Amino acid sequence: MPQIPPLVDKRVLRPAQTALALELVTRMDLLRLKSIARMYARGLPPEVTWEDMLQEALTRVLVGTRQKPEDVTMVAFVAGILRSLRADYWRRALKTNDAVRIDHESDESLALVLSDPAPGPERALDARQALNAIKRLFSDDETALQIINGLAQGLCAEQIRVATGLSKTDYDSARKRMRRALLREGLTCEPR
Amino acid sequence: MRTKVTKGSPETALLRVLDALVEELIEASDEEILEAAKALRMDLALPQSAAWAGVTYFARPRLDEFFDVDTRKKLPDGH
Lengths: 192, 79
Description:
The structure holds two protein chains of two kinds. Chain A is mostly helical. Chain A has helices at 15-21, 27-40, 50-63, 74-98, 121-137, 142-152, 157-164, 168-186; strands spanning 99-103, 111-115. In chain A, strands 1-2 form a two-stranded antiparallel ribbon. In chain A, helix 2 runs parallel beside helix 4 (74-98) and helix 3 crosses helix 4 (74-98). Chain A is globular. The model of chain A has no long low-confidence stretch (mean pLDDT 87). Chain B is mostly helical. The longest helix of chain B has 18 residues, at 10-27. Chain B is flat and about 45 Å long. Classes of the chains: A mainly alpha, B mainly alpha. Chains A and B meet through helix 1, helix 2, helix 3, helix 4 and helix 5 of A and helix 1 and helix 2 of B.
């Protein structure tokens, strides 16, 4: 039977540390990704943590489950995986909470569980609360709130500028303020 | 009867906002990150800085850190 060689270093590394050691990401990239993971975890059930999502996304990169295209930056690539994980967790939450059990009339052995593809009131409420929490981050910035509202309606930057009467300079300044606020929130570990 | 997912559903609106804000974070410069850390009085050079919580160390203590799998199974429910 083959002998497994002893580990040179017995410390357990987290996926983020491994990705850093392999120079797949920089330290600053990890902080960007932390902020992104915290963002994409919003509106998900409380048992789904941004931390697990981040480490899972990096694990998928490390084990090769997902291959990065050459023309995509690592941060954008991992952000895409995080978005995909979010969708998975969202679907799972729908199945868990909104499954409709259909029992056969007389047969006690077989029961069918159908999942309703439409989000139930609980999920809709979670999403609404998450959106409100994001708005609270910009509660003292009227322009940022206008931008958030426009984005929520599916408007692009140009449409938001026209609808709100913002100049390009004002719009870009607001985006910078928003980015700073997002980073300040993203670096913390405050509950989302 | 439950309504179908529409363009105006809360989740759709949330996802649109999240995607747009994530784009902003992807484009954030190193300087902006350092500035945010400074505003929070975080020293990124310190491994135990709160900035690295959830990244290089667990954000919240977990039982996995203290107990092996067998011991965890013996713990009362709720742990």
